[in-house]
From TrEMBL:
GO terms for molecular function: metal ion binding; sirohydrochlorin cobaltochelatase activity. Keywords: Cobalt, Lyase, Metal-binding. It comes from Blautia luti. It comes from the Bacteria. This is Sirohydrochlorin cobaltochelatase. It holds the Pfam family CbiK. InterPro entries: Anaerobic_Co-chelatase (IPR010388).
């Protein structure tokens, strides 16, 4: 890379309209990445145009789409881009993000991508350790039920694989399902019922504790996971803490940036 080159990192998130969780998750990830790579300017983009529009109207907050962020990077003289998503899996959002970024490939010297949170076997092993450690003080007869997002994309298989991996590594009381795909709550109810937990701790398996966590997981609607589980007779405690709040999760994403930089050298 010649001396005139200028490298920067674009951190891409789905986004959230909930300010509190944004600061604790997305902004915390961005800060950790910026701190780890002080020589590289860090930029932000979100993929949800609906949330971007909502924040613009409600808060007067302007957040770039991927294409808008890349246009700004060009104006700033950036030549080489490392794109690091905060997406959990290589799903639809990540595919679209890559397509948007690669439409600029002829305008930069290089564009490389860091992996989403769960990409490699090492990532999957790491997240099991992180979650198990986060809830290590939980009573053994309490079940932890995690709510992932889920997708029709084939990458959705990672959720069932992780659910199995929790059990296979000795965490018989940890269950992972999704709100929009498989394993659904009905599957988890059957599995939890066979475990006979006295209590259930309910937590999002998503980067932010946003709309899904507030409504689908712990909302007042009878169909929320909390109310469905409560109606089955379980004592349910929701923990509205996004994965982005876990320092070790943020560290995985920092490592993914480093891996992408190593590829781009």
């Amino acid at each position: 890379m010649n001396s005139a080159s200028k490298k920067a990192i674009l951190v891409v998130s789905f986004g959230t309209s909930y300010e509190n969780t944004r600061k604790l998750t997305i902004e915390a990830i961005e800060h950790d990445i910026a701190d780890a790579f002080p020589a590289c300017p860090t930029y932000r983009a979100w993929t949800s145009k609906m949330i971007i529009a909502k924040l613009k109207k409600r808060d007067g907050l302007t957040i770039h789409t991927v294409k808008e962020a890349l246009e700004q990077m060009l104006l700033d003289g950036i030549t080489d881009v490392i794109v690091q998503p905060t997406h959990v899996i290589n799903g639809i959002e990540n595919d679209q993000m890559k397509a948007d970024a690669l439409s600029f490939r002829d305008r930069f010297s290089s564009i490389v991508f860091g992996n989403p949170l769960l990409t490699t076997e090492e990532d999957n092993q790491a997240i099991v350790r992180v979650v198990a450690d986060e809830f290590r003080n939980m009573n053994p007869d309490t079940a932890l039920v995690l709510m992932g997002h889920g997708t029709e994309h084939y990458a959705n298989t990672v959720y069932a694989a992780l659910d199995y991996r929790f059990k296979d590594t000795g965490h018989k009381n940890i269950f992972l399902g999704t709100v929009e795909a498989y394993p659904a709550l009905d599957s988890l109810l059957r599995a939890a019922d066979s475990f006979h937990p006295k209590k259930i701790v309910l937590a999002p398996f998503m980067i932010v504790a946003g709309e899904h966590a507030q409504n689908d997981l712990a909302g007042a609607d009878p169909d929320s996971w909390m109310n469905r589980l409560s109606s089955e007779g379980y004592e349910v405690t929701p923990v509205l803490k996004g994965l982005g709040e876990y320092p070790k999760v943020r560290q995985i994403l920092v490592e993914h940036v480093q891996q992408a930089m190593n590829v781009s050298v």
